[in-house]
Amino acid sequence: MLPLSEREVSPEIIASCRTGDRDALRVLFDTYKDRVYSLSLYFFHGDESLAADVTQQVFLKVITNVDRFKGDAAFSTWLYRLAVNACQDAARRRKSGAIVADRARLEGFAASSSQEDDYTRAQNARCVRDAVSALPPKLRMAVLLRYFDELSYEEMAQVLHCSMGTVASRLSRGHKMLAERLKGVTGAGG
Amino acid sequence: MFDRHVNTQLASYLDGELPAPERQRIERHLSSCETCRIECDQVRTGLSMVHALPLASAPAAIWNAIEAATHQTHSQPAWFRYRIPALAAVLTVAIAAILYLTLGHRHQSNWDVVGLQGSTAVDSKPIRGTSTVKPGEWIETASSSSARVQIGAIGVVEVGPATRLRVTAIRPSEHRLALARGEIHAKIIAPPKLFFVDTPSATAEDLGCEYSLKTDEDGLGLLHVTLGWVSFQWKGLESLVPAGASCRTRPHTGPGVPYFDDAPEELIQALGTLAATNYAGSSLDVVLRDARVRDTLTLWHLLPRTESPDRQRIYERIAALSPVPTDVSRERALQLDPDTLARWREALAWTW
Amino acid sequence: MWRFLIVNVLTLMLAGAEGFTFVLASPVASQQFQFKSATFVFRAEGCDSTAPQITATAEGIVKGERKSVELKVASGPKPGIYAVFQNWPPEGQWLVNLKGACGNMTAGAIVPIGPKGFIRESSKILPRPATDNEIETTLRTQGGKK
């Protein structure tokens, strides 16, 4: 996990954002955009349009509410709480109740964004993405937050409004389910 | 001594998130519990699997969209900044709308009302100059009078003569008026599902910027959109009215079929006759005959209001005016499948 | 008769040929509330490999004086759909000149603007950026119609 100093924007940047400094807002956006986008993308089964929409909503809220951030928690904790809420709101608004992994999008995404030349590893990545998509939403969010956004259990508890014990339980169950689903892919035992 | 299973703590154990005493307890348990050992291997495998997921690159378009939403313009030549175009005023309202919706800490409980001409009353009391109006209160203008209502930070509503209008909700998630009679002209910048105007026969949900709405006390009304688009709804029936189009509404039947204001006069008249005869009769021949490509707005809205064989004729006419997308099946369109009709509307909107 | 048929067949063939092009529409086509105050929206079709490079300028005549304003093309959450917002003065005659590049393909459009927004019937979609002559001719024609 990256040290906090490498994954947080500086207090000076946040102070500049409060004054409406567009350059500072752009720095803030560039620091977190890929992680927020990845969280949304994998949470919504590769739906790039929805992930872009959710990411946009999150940063609009950040830009217009940055003066409400009091500094009593890590900025990333506050940001990811907005991201989780935005994902949950979007999930509620989705018309189709059944969540089906969009294989075409996921596979296309693998071809365009994976930097791995090894075909086997690219295949594995696709299988992992499908397995993550199939996790129940609460477990899926916990797994994605931990992996992409590198939050501590304490930070995740704040973001998800639950206890650290619940965070631990969701991660344990989520990773176990992933291993069970991916048994045939990697030969991993159960 | 009973040693409880540790399966819910395995992730935190493997992640190194546990204090030393708890970590040691788990290690002791794992050494003697095969079930938890197997599960620990599974969690370890799952943790390693997730590392196969690549970080996705957020599209550049997202920042462009954020800038568009906050309408930050690049530096421009000074020569034309001397006059603020109408768009700048609208953009200011847009930014104010976003701030209003997301800050939320200044929850307004009333709106400002300004009498522009003649006499205006709020809650039956005549106002002088500026006053305020609360939910539940009526705004009433005399004939030859007009007023303006500031709808929080999202826009204004101009109230025409002989109009009776009630404020029904002022909430962060809902701004609502009820137009009992008369005419209003709304200029609103807000996301969908925030600003609504109820009339006796339909509700206008603001999805757009600027429109006028008039009604009489019996519910006979007319919506005309000048900028953006508005959803006109009643009991599950919806008419989407884009800029440059109008839509009548009738008591007990709700919103009618929208039409472009520049449509052939005979088409508009035939549409009125159709509406009065429950969308059956020979007036459909005139509508089909005179429809241009952009009048597929009207034809698409006629589909769910008609029966066979008229519905088939309407389908064929739309198909003749604008190629049917490959993912729109004729059979499902005629069966009024909602997803099919929605996809068709999305494609047709590019011709409206 | 044969010449007439050949010309029409060729025209149809050209029209149906794949290539990079713009499709214009009113803001309602985008179904994105961020675009509802746009002057018009457009799609860039036929550019599958990379994001196209698109620029826009407003070309106008104000009180006899020729003006040009660089515009920002806004893109929204849905890929491939863009919007142009009015950033030119309300007086005078104006059109929007769109230019697009996708690899070695190009596209263009001349979009005259009227009191009620873009004038679809007078808009020209081109397989290349508009020439200065085409822009000037369109502006003169607009001025003549007033």
% residues in beta strands of chain A: under 5%
Structural class of chain A, please?
mainly alpha
Q: Per CATH, which architecture of chain A?
A: Orthogonal Bundle
Number of contiguous helices of chain C? 2
User: Which chains share the greatest interface?
Assistant: A-B, 61 and 41 residues
Q: How many strand elements of chain A? A: 0
- Sketch the major β-sheet of chain C: 6 strands, antiparallel
Q: Assembly state here?
A: heterotrimer
What is the CATH H-level superfamily of chain A? RNA polymerase sigma factor, region 2, helix turn helix motif
Largest sheet of chain A: none
Explain how this protein is built.
The complex is a heterotrimer of chains A (190), B (352) and C (146). Chain A is built from 11 helices and no strands. Chain A is mostly helical. Chain A has one domain: Rna Polymerase Sigma Factor, Chain: A (Orthogonal Bundle). With 352 residues, chain B is an alpha+beta fold. Chain B folds into 3 domains: 7-44, no CATH class; 106-256, Jelly Rolls; 267-352, no CATH class. Chain B is built from 11 helices and 18 strands. Chain B has an 18-stranded mixed beta sheet that branches. Chain C has a domain at 46-75 and 86-145. Chain C contains 2 helices and 10 strands, in the order αββββββββββα. In chain C, the strands form 2 sheets. In chain C, strands 3, 4, 7, 8, 9 and 10 form a 6-stranded antiparallel beta sheet that branches. The longest helix of chain C has 15 residues, at 2-16. Chain C is globular. The termini of chain C are far apart. The model of chain C is unreliable at 11-17 (pLDDT under 50). Chains in contact: A-B, A-C, B-C. The interface between A and B is large, with 61 and 41 residues.
